[in-house]
Write a structure and sequence with these properties.
- By secondary structure, the protein is of the alpha/beta class.
- It has three domains: 6-245 and 463-472, Aldehyde Dehydrogenase, Chain A, domain 1; 249-450, Aldehyde Dehydrogenase, Chain A, domain 2, CATH 3.40.309; 486-519, no CATH class.
- The protein has helices at residues 2-9, 32-50, 54-70, 72-83, 87-113, 149-160, 174-190, 205-214, 224-237, 259-271, 288-303, 328-343, 395-402, 418-426, 462-467, 493-507, 511-519, and strands spanning 12-16, 23-28, 116-118, 126-134, 137-141, 164-168, 198-200, 217-221, 241-244, 249-253, 281-287, 347-350, 366-369, 386-392, 407-408, 410-414, 432-435, 452-453, 470-478.
- The chain has a seven-stranded mixed sheet, with helices on both faces. A five-stranded parallel sheet has the order 7-6-5-8-9, sandwiched between helices.
- It is globular.
- The structure holds nicotinamide-adenine-dinucleotide.
- Residues 141-145, 150, 168, 170-171, 204-205, 208-209, 212, 221-223, 226, 229-230, 244-247, 278, 327, 381, 383, 409, 451, 456 line the site of nicotinamide-adenine-dinucleotide (NAD).
Length: 520
């Protein structure tokens, strides 16, 4: 009875669609005690899973992929409703990413994590093996901008590495994470495994903090501010943390660039997901000679975008390109950045306001010109549909301005000369740089992705993206079984002399010297 009363009084989060502002569901707020209990259940579940062979885990993850595909329509609709995305983006960005992640890590986990033999350069009498041991229970703390990718998508490599996972989704988009986890939990159950291999604890920052206090590792994606708080808290227990934080990604357009492709990329790269993308184009530096032409194309393409709600549009006439803004505070940040820019002399060439005729939280795709680095729009992460374009004299100035940022997540360079572009890309301070492309760095699951400077310290994808969910254990085993080693007791003059001869013979340069050291 007491338990039932407690459940009735439990606080919950009301979830409203950003497209309509109507309530679409609720999620419970997990207390620190409940988080602790979830971690204990996860730890127990992990003992079975971590002992399984890669081939067995692969079979189960590929079955989860099929189940996700089978229920994809339900998932797509929920993402559109909960995050306000256009349907096309829910398919291409969210479901496609998770289906690919399940395939990639199911198949590649063995390649990245099978024990590696090391051949010692010195201690030839030893056999050395590096093992990748799962950490136990991985806590994933996620943002709201990609509610499936950042929760389920991030859980996949951690699971493939043999861990149990607990997801703390954003309080703004927990329903998608719950549905994604339900599909995986059903899969585990169908294979006779504990469902608690994947759990979701919904709630606010306090729930996330409790997870930091209990889990064996934290994979955090979110703002720089929260990332620092989590790193500090995890440091109290010396628990490893990977941090995927914000960005202020520059796009450098040189005068020999294909302006048709570059302008289309700028518009998509800035307005996709309403600009709520950590690697969206947040600032453009374009060479004077082509600035007018480039800007004209960008404005034309921006004005042609369709904005609104698009959950189940099937025909092109009812589709939209730009959806709503998921997080109420983010639209205020956008307004503040545009206001500040205009007050300091920026010109609004398109948009510049909330969409007046739409019922939900929409900000019009906005293009700004005459911007400079005194403005917030060129300094702080806007995370909204605004594309500020700054003219520069030349490549050097563009590079210097691109690197004048506390962020370093991603960037792009545009030029007709690819090798010049790659040289310039190598001088941009960012974890990934595209040449004549945008955003795609994060889609290359085979290569590491992450930031430098305040954009974070973790890497998702590739070998580091899965190895971060393990700890390296080294097994050193003696090959010959001598009665004693040279460096063991007792210490003797004869032993020292022998040691010095060995040192000289190994480390002296030149054959003559080596021989003299050995025999002379
Ligand atoms: P946020 O930092 O506000 O919240 C992220 C998560 O942390 C949420 O689940 C939140 O409940 C939780 N949280 C908040 N306070 C906490 C605390 N004290 N302890 C533990 N957990 C806490 O970020 P957001 O607004 O949800 O997401 C937007 C940010 O995410 C942007 O800065 C964006 O650039 C970044 N992001 C980065 C990447 C990347 O790969 N680098 C990807 C997506 C988003």
């Amino acid at each position: 009875m007491a338990q039932r009363i407690q459940q009735q009084q439990r606080s919950s989060i009301e979830i409203c669609s950003p497209s309509t502002l109507e309530k679409i569901g609720e999620a419970p707020v997990y207390t620190p005690d409940e988080v602790r209990a979830a971690v204990e259940r996860g730890r127990k579940a992990a003992t079975v899973w971590s002992g399984m062979r890669f081939a067995e885990r692969r079979r189960i993850l590929l079955d989860a992929r099929q189940r996700l595909l089978d229920r994809s329509e339900e998932v797509i609709r929920l993402i559109c409703n909960e995050a306000g995305k256009p349907r096309f983006e829910a398919v291409t960005m969210e479901v496609a990413y998770c289906v690919d992640a399940l395939t990639f890590y199911a198949k590649q986990a063995r390649r990245f994590l099978q024990p590696q033999r090391v051949s010692p350069h010195l201690l030839k009498t030893k056999k050395v093996t590096v093992r990748y041991v799962p950490r136990g229970v991985v806590g994933i703390i996620a943002p709201w901008n990609f509610p499936l990718v950042m929760t389920l998508g991030e859980a996949v490599p951690a699971l493939a590495a043999g861990n149990a996972v607990i997801i703390k989704p954003s309080e703004w988009t927990p329903l998608t994470a719950l549905l994604g986890a339900e599909i995986l939990r059903e899969t585990f159950k169908a294979h006779g495994l504990p469902e608690d291999l994947l759990q979701v604890v919904t709630g606010y920052g306090e729930t996330g903090g409790a997870l930091v206090d209990e889990a064996d590792m934290i994979a955090f994606t979110g703002s720089v501010r929260t990332g620092k708080l989590i790193a500090e808290r995890a440091a109290r227990r010396l628990v490893p943390v990977s941090l995927e934080l914000g960005g202020k990604d520059p796009m450098i357009v040189l005068k020999d660039a294909d302006l048709e492709r570059a302008s289309s990329a700028a518009v998509w790269g800035a307005f996709m997901n309403s600009g709520q993308v950590c690697i969206s184009v947040e600032r453009v530096y374009v060479e004077d000679a082509v600035a007018e032409d480039f800007t004209r194309r960008v404005v034309e393409k921006t004005l042609a975008l369709r904005q609104g709600r698009d959950v189940d549009a099937q025909d092109d006439a009812s589709r939209v390109d730009v959806g709503a803004m998921t997080f109420p505070k983010q639209i205020e940040t956008v307004e503040q950045h545009v206001r500040d820019a205009v007050a300091r002399g920026a010109k609004v060439l398109a948009g510049g306001r909330r969409a007046p005729d739409l019922p939900g939280r929409y900000y019009e795709p906005t293009v700004l010109a005459d911007v400079d680095h005194s403005m917030q729009i060129m300094q702080d992460e806007t995370f909204g549909p605004v594309l500020p374009i700054m003219r520069v004299r030349n490549e050097q100035e563009a590079l210097q301005l691109a690197n004048d940022s506390r962020y370093g997540l991603n960037a792009s360079v545009w030029t007709g000369d690819r090798s010049r572009g790659e040289d310039l890309a190598a001088r941009v301070e960012a974890g990934s740089v595209c040449v004549n492309d945008v955003i795609t760095g994060v889609a290359v699951t085979d290569a590491p992705f992450g930031g430098v400077k305040e954009s974070g310290s973790g890497r998702r994808h590739g070998a580091p993206g899965i190895r971060r969910f393990t700890t390296e254990q080294v097994i050193v085993s003696d090959r010959f079984g001598l009665k004693r080693e040279m460096i063991w007791y007792p210490y003797t003059a004869k032993g020292e002399k022998l040691m010095r001869r060995v040192l000289a013979s190994i480390f002296s340069s030149g054959l003559g010297r080596k021989l003299r050291a050995m025999f002379g």
